[in-house]
Amino acid sequence: MWMASFGFASGLTTLGLPAVEIPAALLLFNVGVEVGQIGFVLIVVALERSFRVLEIHWPRWVEVIPGYAVGPLGAYWTIQRTAMLFAGLS
Amino acid sequence: MISSPPRSELRASVELTTLATVLLRAIVLGALCLTVTPATAHAHLVSTGFGPFYDGISHLFLSLDDLLAVLAMALLAGLGGSRHGPLTLFALATAWLGAGLLGLEVAEVKVSWPAASALSFLVLGLLVAIHRDLPHVAVAALAVSVGLLHGYLNGTAMSQIDGGTLALVGIAAAVFTIVALVAAFVTSLRAAWARVGVRVAGSWIAAIGMLMLGWAVRSLG
After folding, report:
1. How far apart are CA B76 and CA B139, in angstroms?
2. ipTM of the complex
3. B95-B183-B101 Cα angle (round to 5)
4. A50, B81 Cβ separation under 8 angstroms
């Protein structure tokens, strides 16, 4: 979230938004991100309930896919964004 | 009597605390430096390339004929309970994606069949409204037919833009999610009046289908 905010702050500066407006824009940006994340989690929880109601039983290998997908992707993006951040400083 | 720790251990502990404080200050200082010297913004959709995926999801919610067909199919599956739900869920999303990819490959121009599209959810809406217990094969055939028709039309439309495959995956994911949520919701309804409400919703979908079919036929003439 911090890294996204750094990038977004630079974008707002580049767009020529007055400095006094940036804190409010950043605040609303972060609120929007949080709302999006909560919405996504709610959809996943509702889907999980739907699968139970519809009596859909997933095989074990399907159940572990989300964990294995999220882990490497998260690690990849963390390393990539950190590299981008430091590349921007140099 | 409690014995005090040896002097060497005490010194090591103090040195560790000092080191932790220095590290913490370095991290805070580093974060402040990054804050005051921001790098170029790398907006998520641009740097991850996932933009078309979200376009696909949005497309479904903005295309009334696609959305109504999915909703009607989900209502029909939900009225059939856990017997029809899983089958419809996988059949519809898979057929939609498969036909979409086919349309993406073969079509050189966007194909638009508004009459066929309207007819599809008109029929589904009527089936929801009359609610007869359909056999397994019939529900599966309906799901595949609707998926093939709407998926192919989406595919031909997506062939005009970049990232069509990812957009189709987004549409199929949205179809899967909507059918799962709506079908499970309808399945969980036990009160007679609530199930009548579902059938009324089906009749509204059929009415919209009839209206859109009329417009489509009139514009052909």
Report:
1. 8
2. 0.70
3. 15
4. no
Q: Does A85 touch chain B (CB under 8 A)?
A: yes
Given its phi and psi angles, is residue B132 left (phi above 0), alpha (psi -120 to 50 degrees) or beta? beta
Q: Rounded to two decimals, what is the model's pTM?
A: 0.75
Chain B within 8 Å of A89 (Cβ-Cβ)?
yes
What is the per-residue burial (b if ≥16 Cβ within 10 Å, else e) of B76-94?
bbbbbebbbbbbbbebbbb
Residue B40 to residues A25, A59, A77, B45, Cα–Cα distance (Å): 17, 44, 16, 15
Distance from CA of B29 to the nearest CA of A (A): 15
pLDDT in tens, A2-47: 556 666 666 677 777 777 777 888 888 889 989 999 999 999 999 9
Residue B148 C-alpha, separation from nearest chain A C-alpha, in angstroms = 23
Asked if A69 is an interface residue toward chain B (Cβ–Cβ < 8 A), one would say no
Q: Which of A31, A82, A77 is nearest to B44 (CA)?
A: A77
Contacts of A47 in chain B (CB under 8 A): 177, 180-181
B190 contact A CB<8A = no
